[in-house]
UniProtKB/TrEMBL annotation:
This is Branched-chain amino acid ABC transporter permease. Its main location: membrane. It comes from Salinarimonas ramus. The keyword Repeat does not apply. One of its GO terms (cellular component) is plasma membrane. Belongs to the binding-protein-dependent transport system permease family. LivHM subfamily.
Amino acid sequence: MDLLSQIFVEPFALMVEMPDLLVQTLWEGFVSGVLYALIALGFVLIFKASGVFNFAQGIMVVFSALTLVGFYAMGVPAILALVLAIGVMFVLAWTVERVVLRPLVNQPDIILFMATFGLTYFLIGFGELVFGGEPKQMITDELFLPTGATEFDLGGGYVRIQHLDVAAAVIASIMIAVLGVFFSKTRIGRALRAVADSHKAALSVGISLNQIWVIVWFAAGVVALVTGIMWGARSDVSFALQIIALKALPVLILGGFTSIPGAIVGGLIIGLGEKIGEFYWGPVVGGGIETWFAYVIALIFLLFRPQGLFGEKIIERV
């Protein structure tokens, strides 16, 4: 009976008794969810263009952030370093299209997927060679990102809002909205959907796979850079960030691999769910809910709705 009380009664009673802690938990979960959605957006863009899960998106987050910090360490002003880092991501997109994707047009999806594995380990090795393996500090102040926090009273307690988290949520939300409109309402967006449906059909109507892939990989690279800045500002820039980026996989399973709104909803479900679960139900299971909650939810969705909340059902005639 005590266990049932700890699971079904005490957490909800605590939410009512201490609303300040509930609001604090919800805010932290919302910020994490928006950043998860931003990470997932990079995966969605490339999946929509090639039908392949880009395993390299995680290391692109790390590599882009290390590039930014590396340019600044060389004496380049912060804003110029940001511009140069964006330029590096364009060069990376162009190189991936020329060296990796172009020779693999119309190859099975598993071939393209394995190519992203190779790209991942190349970027890890190249990144360690150029930047070293030790963690770096993100240039938060130099990029004019806000610091400090604001506290306000709620229900007899205090809610603390980090200014950096507010900036991260706003910037990520704007980027998600802009990219969502760009790829759903523009000519490039329509071409992207055509490429996702069939490479051969897209080529037959004059759509350039080469241009589409460069654009999409560049957009994913910019998303990776923004993600690396925000996550790096909250901790450090290190190769461990690619593990955080892989949280996008359960987000995509929840929302659907081809859906930008799905990435948003999936990110919020994971972000809010793991924070609430860790704080209110963590003591019951000994903590650590944040490390496995997302993957359990993803497993449940795979069993009952494998296409995700917003994913398209695939019907094959046999």
